[in-house]
Write a structure and sequence with these properties.
The chain is an alpha+beta fold. It has one domain: Deoxyribonuclease I, Chain A. Helix content is 18%, strand content 39%. It has a seven-stranded mixed β-sheet with strand order 1-2-3-4-5-7-6. β8 and β9 form a beta hairpin. It is globular, with a radius of gyration of 17 Å. This is Endonuclease/exonuclease/phosphatase domain-containing protein.
Length: 168
């Protein structure tokens, strides 16, 4: 195993050697490990977000998907399969085009404890944010294109996360 040196020497290039199948991005000392799943180039699974001090953020998984309509059976099946495979702590669905009662049924089947919704405008847009009880999410602000949150996981320090739907 390579000598890692002091914590400040860890960089995205080093992490890519350990996670070759994932994309590792670094912004101002915070690393994001994720995998692009395809699904019309709109679905990602985020496996971990952590600072240079790796112990400061616990591992967690988040699915973020611009689903482009969640009424189609193949999309619901894909969501169920991703949930079973990656066991995410958080799921964010943008452009789901569904109102809360329909989305709540799916959330309960996937065993997510909490939620926040932005209803679509007519048949366009809509966002759903679901999380499990181990995650503590506080909604700071939201509108039809974003949800700003404060997130903590298993009692660890909180961090800010924005979930964004940006239609073309």
């Amino acid at each position: 195993m390579d000598d890692l040196g002091p914590p400040f020497s860890i960089g995205a290039g080093w992490l890519n050697r350990w996670f070759p199948e994932f994309v590792v991005a670094e912004v101002q000392g915070v690393f994001l490990v994720y995998q692009h799943l395809g699904y019309n180039h709109s679905c990602f699974v985020v496996f971990s977000v952590f600072s240079i001090n790796v112990d400061s953020f616990p591992p967690m998984a988040t699915i973020s998907w611009n689903v482009r309509g969640l009424s189609q059976k193949d999309r619901i099946q894909s969501l169920k399969l991703m949930n079973a495979k990656y066991n995410p702590d958080i799921i964010f669905l943008s452009e789901n085009k569904q109102k809360q009662p329909y989305l709540k049924k799916i959330r309960k089947r996937l065993k997510f404890d909490s939620s926040f919704y932005i209803d679509p405008l007519g048949i366009a847009g809509g966002m759903a944010l679901w999380w499990k009880s181990e995650s503590n999410i506080t909604i700071l602000s939201a509108d039809k294109n974003y949800i700003d949150t404060s997130v903590s996981f298993s009692g660890e320090p909180s961090w800010f996360c924005s979930f964004i739907y940006a239609p073309q």
